[in-house]
Design brief:
heterodimer; A: alpha+beta; seven-stranded antiparallel β-sheet; 11 helices; about 35% strand; elongated; disordered C terminus; B: about 30% helix
Amino acid sequence: MKDIGNLKLLGVIIILAASVQACKNYGFRANYQEANKLLHATENIRTKPYLKAHMKNGDVCILKDTWIIDTNKNTVFGNGKRFDYNRKEIFLGEMTLHIDSVSIFETNSKILKPEKGRIATLSILTGIDVALGVICITNPKVCFGSCPTFYMNEDNNFHFADSEGFSNAIAPSMEYSDIDALNNPPIEDQIFSLTMKNEALETHCVNDVKLLAYPRKKGERIFQSKSNEFYLCQNDYLLSHAEGQEGIVTALLKNEDRQERFSLADEKNLSSKEEIYLTFDGVENQNDLGLIVNFRQTLMTTYFIYSAIGFMGDQVGDFFAKIEQSKEINSSLKNGITKELGNIDLYALNSRTNEWELQDGLYETGPIAVNRQIIPLKIYGKNQQIKLKLVMNKGLWRIDFTALTNIKGKVKPLEIKPSSIYNKGQNDLDALSAIENPNKHLISMPGNEYRFHFELPEKNMDYELFLYSKGYYLEWMREHWLKDKNLLKLHEMVYNPKKYLRNETKDYKEYESMMEQEFWNSKIDTKTFIYYEKN
Amino acid sequence: MKKIDLLIFGVVFALVCSCGTTKNLPFSEDIDINEHGSFIKIYQKPSSISGELISLDSNEMVVLTEKSAQCVIVPLKTVKKFKLIFANSKKYGWSVPLFTIATAPLGWIAVLGATPVNIIVTTAVSESSNSAFTYKNKNISFEEMKMFARFPQGIPTNIKIDSIK
């Protein structure tokens, strides 16, 4: 429980629960068998308590706070009610009781504000819920996820998602396939299972799910490139030094520990670049090098997707119909902002010319699962020190890990279709049939979970696994988004993304720090999960 | 997962169903003008006894039972476990489903923490309210319990036990 967010949450629960429990034990009642003791006990009390006189015959008299004891006459005088032994009221008004007829006097102090603790607790809880509600209403982009998430361990939450499928496919015509490295631990069983979850207010239409597997020996890894080529690699050269605009960031990028390096967006223009300089020392084999990068996005693109739907307002259905019918709009949506924000571009320093040379770029939408990809390098010359530079949009990317590796060659993984699909513990033949048929979609609604089983070709063989998923999803319109309708902004976003990104900066910056904080407050320490350790 | 859902449903159902008040018991603000004894529940086998505490001495207690509206004598040596309620508490069972439902629009935040926190806190509030004006056998001695009987002085000799209602 290192995470501050979790500690805060725990603190809230403990404080609230403690304040609830703090209201017990009342020493409010006292009995007196002698009038003198009663007199002494009540003489310094400014407001006398009600007096209950339990009579010897079983009656009880309850006198208001004006009662008086006359020690000379040995009587108690007061105004109140008298009840018989079955507690039926038999007298109301002024009465004089002879003390000898009273068996026991009883007084009760008022219990002051007994509900105070509970009301305070519910008030605090209401305050927290309202605050969260305000955050979600004013900034709903924080509160909901997107696209199907896949888990090797079905009990994990989305912070440990091993893959997220087709994040950009927000309409049927935008359907595409996506391949993600699962970074799986050594395989011990011939059956490999993955759980697909729908954790958002969306309808997921999944056309295909399959595994891509390639056998690996000890010390070997297979990485995919942006263009989905697969490289068999060995030897890792860990990062020696990394520096960004904020200073040295080596510790954040050196290990696969989910301690990520990220920055906040530029304050004047959301479309602004930044650079990170990477140095690798002691690279003994400079042939066929590739840079491994573990990365994912911040919430910036999630914000844009939800903003676009919000701008459509009550015409969201019409716009999605147009997206389906018009290739031009479809293409503008795909290429507008995405193109403007750009890739994570990798440059290598040519030691002979001392110039930065572009190698390639990486891009994958989605803030949830970490992507693990490789960029093959074109480096000339023999130098054990390799200097690289990442150029990317400020505030858009989270980078966890960078390392160099030697590429042994290109490989083609095996395709493995699911052998069975389980839904709520039951073998779901319809789901399997939908996945097997290229003309059908498996429909997954919010809260649905499907467990896919794959049979690996050989026993006692270790494989590097990748997940192939194809489909699209339909975002559910939220009522509070309707008020965001702004067709001019939508037009600007699609057809003039450069201007939109500049104009949207102020609004986005207002949300950014809060979005990040809310999103990551619930982050759980990943170090306890062994499958994030390097093989 | 299914077990957890059922558990949550059970807790909520139990809390919502526990919204009644006990007959003849005052609310805490009227504790000083209540003419009846406190409510006692004695856990015994084969069946528990519950009702108004009429009197208590060093050997036995008399309880006017809810079921039969008649007094029963319970020897103290047979009483191992009991609960004494001296006032009706405000009920907060409604807060469990209400606060839980209220977190639904929070999306991920609800799943990640808001809903469980709301269930835990409101359940604690409701449970604390249910036991607010209660003494259990470990919190009070028989001697102290006398103060909470209808007749703290004991049943007067002129009253026949069968006539107590």
